[in-house]
Amino acid sequence: MSLQKDVWWAVARSEEVTSDKPLSVDIGDQPIVLWRDNHGIARALEDRCPHRRAPLSLGCIRDNGLIQCGYHGWSYDGETGRLKEIPNMKDQQKFPPVYKATAFAVSEQAGFVRVCLDPKAEAPASASPHYKYSGTANVSLRHQEYLDALYDDPSLLIAIRAVHFTPYLMSELHEQGGRLVMERSCQWKTPHWPAHFVAEFPLTLLTSTDPVSGETELTLRDDQAKELLHAVLAPVPAARGVTAVRWRAELGERHAGIRGALLRGSNPLSVLSSIDGTKLRTTKPTVSLHGEDLRAELRGATHDSSQPPVDRTVAA
Amino acid sequence: MLEVADRPLQTDESPTTRASTPISLNAINRWVPHDIVMRDSWFPVAHNYSVTGKPVRRAIYSHPIFLWREDGVVVASEFHPNERIARDKSVYTDVKGHYPTMEHYGVVWVWFGNPQAADPVHLPSLPFLPPKGGLPKHMTATVRFESSAPISLENLIDLTHADFLHADVVGDERSDSETVETFYDSETVTMVRTLVNKSVAPVMKFFSGIRQPTQNVRQVIRIYLRSHCAIAYGQFNPGDDVPLFHPCTPETRDRTRMEMVMNTSNAGLMFRHVMPKAGYKVSRQDSYMTSPQSPRYMRHTDRKDLHSKFDQAGQRYRMAMMELAERQEKGDFAYRDNVSADCSDIIGLRKELFQF
Ligand code: FES
Ligand SMILES: [Fe+2]
């Protein structure tokens, strides 16, 4: 897929990025290594040592915050990617500027570490709060297909405890403030009439998607407009057509009664990492049918999709 | 000095000839070892004890080889004797589909190339192995790598990684001084690394009973380019003399077989038995890096690899391989240097320890 260089992808949750061990992630075919330096700042370099192309994620993080390649021990600075040290090279520890790994821009907010392939990109403005529950799922579905599935039948991808997603929409997918927004009717999972014959739905799931990154905010509301659950789902196109999904969620207001209690308790959201292929194949595209066009339109309005190809030797 | 400019390697220590077209430093820093296919060469394919009456399967650059013995003599054939033949014979074998083959140093060698050109004079010199073989089995091993043979050999000739990747076996990176010298001709590259007062390798502490905190180390790596095989010779003082035959036979362009022989006859009893086994551990550590590294060398990239002064030998290896490959590309398969001439002096072998 074509990856726009100026997108901030939520490639990790904050707690996944540590100074104990480098984390390997990818944006499309671009492998990236993440770690936290000695000031606690998240850093991102291309996961490829420019010496002999070994993955830097197989190395370690030194006390001084540099990442050290596990092969010959070259150490790099996370901010600039510059080579800082070669073991045993006592006479020379100043290196010409070309001695560097490719550095990417990093921004951390609301419990997500976001990376932009353009190192000069401006950090995005902070939006959502830091939600307490979180998780990571790698799904073997391409990024657009992931979004399509989310629009056509969210139960293919996620589950909210005690909640049943109906096929009935209260609002089709439309543009609102530059985002893709829709609202789906939901029921409690407790015994209920089949959705087709229900006069009033007790719940709705509101989704709002960034048309470029596909990052989606989910809000579960009851019929009194109480917001019961907030979540952010951040699907990132990863290697081999996999979509790496990081998510965070928080319970909102309390819905009265036993049903409201069911939703509470511990982590209310689960994001599936395996997809039922039969169910997926036979899920007819409905929302996604014009959703893809709408998304393309919104992206086209704000973004230029031309970009240089990634070095094809790195995908490995 | 770090070289970043586009110019050939300056350290031209060779006493012998130069190739006709010098290959630029840019080219070697962007080399694609996966594209290098060498021929007219003896490849070590099996320990002689593994070839019996029952055919065993090998390959060189994906060309099938079946090895078995008839009246004690090794046959290397393109076809399994029971095979229903549904493919054409290649140009690398005689009318019967047999490759030239020979046994020497306890290893079975197969000639890959023009069968008419096969000549024992092109067999690499391995003066620390008994010509007729016969070392005990525990000094041998088979190891496989999911990487291209030149990547494995580059790994071997660059010994700085050892202090790092193999620290638990060979000791850490601390020493008082380190020098690296490189010698080469059109068929070989030899590197000599000398370390003064290096921390003693943990394996030696345990199994050779070395009490001193440091030892002087002289390590030699000699690569026979065409055969993709190497000698790794370590002299440790105090300590042992451990010469190792380290072939990297390209069974395919990115899968490598190593029929290793380590002559530890001169070492202490424990060391003699344990050291060859250390090869398994060390090779897994190498593989941890070379497996992900190798596919990144399967296609051309415009980005140049960086290097330091410690990569002198590795850079030379790349250049020599590319020069040889370029000559073969033009149809020139002649040997300009003799690979079978005794290399004891070049590797500094303590001959008195290896009399056969
Ligand atoms: S490959 Fe990273 S230090 Fe050599
Ligand atoms: Fe190694």
How much β-strand is present in the residues of chain A? 35-45%
Q: Based on the structure, what is the oligomeric state of the protein chains? A: heterodimer
What is the ordering of alpha helices and beta strands of chain B? HEEEEEEEHHHEEHEEEEEHHH
CATH architecture of chain B: Alpha-Beta Complex
The percent of residues in helical segments of chain A reads: 10-25%
What's the number of helices of chain A?
A: 4
Order of helices and strands of chain A: EEEEEEEEEEEHEEEEEEEHEHH
Q: Which range does the strand content of chain B fall in? A: 25-35%
Helix/strand-derived category of chain B reads: alpha+beta
Bound ligands: FE2/S2 (inorganic) cluster, fe (ii) ion
What is the total number of structural domains of chain B? 1
CATH superfamily of chain B, please?
A: Naphthalene 1,2-dioxygenase Alpha Subunit, Chain A, domain 1
CATH fold name of the largest domain in chain A: Alpha-D-Glucose-1,6-Bisphosphate, Chain A, domain 4
CATH class label of chain B? Alpha Beta
Compute the average pLDDT of chain B. 89
CATH architecture of the largest domain in chain A: 2-Layer Sandwich
Q: How much helicity do the residues of chain B have?
A: 10-25%
Report the CATH topology name of chain B: Naphthalene 1,2-dioxygenase Alpha Subunit, Chain A, domain 1
Q: Judging from the principal axes of the Cα atoms, what is the shape of chain B?
A: globular
Which CATH top level class of the largest domain in chain A fits? Answer: Alpha Beta
Care to count the β-strands of chain A? 19
Protein name (chain B): Oxygenase
Biased composition (Polar residues) (chain B): 11-20
GO molecular function (chain B): 2 iron, 2 sulfur cluster binding; oxidoreductase activity
Region (Disordered) (chain B): 1-20
